[in-house]
Amino acid sequence: MTSPGEQDFIVSNFTTTSWGGWIGATDAGEEGVWQWVTGPETGTVFWDNGEEIGYNNFATNQPNDFKGQEDYAHLGYFQKDAWNDITNDTSGIKNEDYQVVGYYVEYGD
């Protein structure tokens, strides 16, 4: 999601749970440097240690790398339709309502 238009399209058509889905962004390669790792924008950095380089919709006070384990972004938590960083495996979370179980895929240019 590299623009408000893409964000709005996804939110309007696909968000179905409070925890939404994975959006293909991570800072696992270098902490605090967020980039796209899927889709046409693979390798594009959009956030560098708090500096907004490109479009993002992180929730207030996110990304925060809670407990040093949150390196993957998903849509739909904290603030409605905002992004959050979280661990890449949410299956251990006991409340299934808080598990990220899907992902958004973009095809094309």
Which class do the helix and strand fractions yield? mainly beta
Uncertain residue segments: none
- What is the level-2 CATH architecture name? Roll
The helix-strand sequence is HEEEEEEE
Strand content: 15-25%
CATH class term: Alpha Beta
CATH-defined superfamily: Mannose-Binding Protein A, subunit A
Give the beta-strand count: 7
The largest sheet is: 7 strands, mixed
Q: Could you say how many structural domains there are in total? A: 1
The termini sit apart by: 12 Å
Query: Which overall shape is indicated by the principal axes computed on the Cα atoms?
Result: globular
Give the helices and strands, then pairings:
Blueprint: H1 4-13, E1 21-26, E2 33-36, E3 45-48, E4 51-52, E5 72-75, E6 83-86, E7 102-103
Parallel strand pairs: 1-7
Antiparallel strand pairs: 1-2, 1-5, 2-3, 3-4, 5-6
Description:
A hairpin with an 8-residue loop joins strand 2 and strand 3. This protein has 109 residues and is mainly beta. Helices cover 9% and strands 24% of the residues. It is globular and about 35 Å long. It has one domain: Mannose-Binding Protein A, subunit A (Mannose-Binding Protein A, Chain A, Roll), CATH 3.10.100.10.
Task: Name the features.
9% helix; 109 residues; globular; mainly beta; Mannose-Binding Protein A, Chain A; 7 strands
In short:
With 109 residues, the protein is mostly beta strands. The chain has one helix at residues 4-13; strands at residues 21-26, 33-36, 45-48, 51-52, 72-75, 83-86, 102-103. The two termini are 12 Å apart.
